[in-house]
Amino acid sequence: MRRWLLGLSSILSALGLSACSDGPTTQQSYIRQSGTWSEFIYAGAQGPILLEIRGEPFKGQQSQLEGLILAALEGAHPERPTRYTQDPAQAPHANFRVTLMFDPPKTARGSHLCAGEALASGPNEPGKVNVLMSFCSKGEMLAESWGWVKKVTGPDDKRLSKLLHFAVRHLFQAAK
């Protein structure tokens, strides 16, 4: 009986994993050991945090994509409601920024984004979107996350919204 249950459990796990093979998948790949969450709170305490968007996964639909990005990011931290802006004049602490790059080159890091390096978007398989996200202060990387999702049909696809939501949550997730 126990073997049968273990076998059934393995089959169900495999089915569950195959259903997730299209993502979204996100991961925090770096966070400075101290103060990053506090700096995030400080950066957004008096107004929106500066947001830089790089790349255009859906040609000709950038304004629609920007609206989706703002909505996904602004709803990601219910414990700390945060707004974002692309206008440096509206960000009270413009020395802090979140940089989001769509389809970065495989060798790209958040530190490249924070340093302002020009990076060309890499080629991607149709329907797949990769993101690299970093939280920066004065050109220094404080945190980095990345993710991907497949079978995205356009900028209004809920799968893309989930990818962005989880990527920004992981960006500020404290190590446990």
Descriptive notes:
This protein is of the alpha/beta class and about 180 residues long. The protein has a single domain (about 25-170), classed as Double Stranded RNA Binding Domain, CATH 3.30.160. About 35% of the residues lie in helices and about 25% in strands. It has helices spanning about 1-20, 35-45, 60-75, 110-115, 160-170; strands at about 25-30, 50-55, 85, 95-100, 130-135, 140-150. Strand 2 (about 50-55), helix 3 and strand 3 form a beta-alpha-beta unit. Helix 3 (about 60-75) crosses helix 5 (about 160-170). The relative contact order is 0.22.
Number of domains: 1
Number of strands: 6
Mean pLDDT: 85
End-to-end C-alpha gap = 37 Å
CA radius of gyration: 18 Å
Number of helices in the DSSP assignment? 5
The major β-sheet equals:
6 strands, mixed
Q: Helix amount, in percent?
A: 25-40%
Work out the strand percent. Answer: 15-25%
CATH architecture: 2-Layer Sandwich
Shape: globular
H/E element order: HEHEHEEHEEH
> Which regions are unreliable across 5 or more consecutive residues at pLDDT < 50?
1-19
CATH class: Alpha Beta
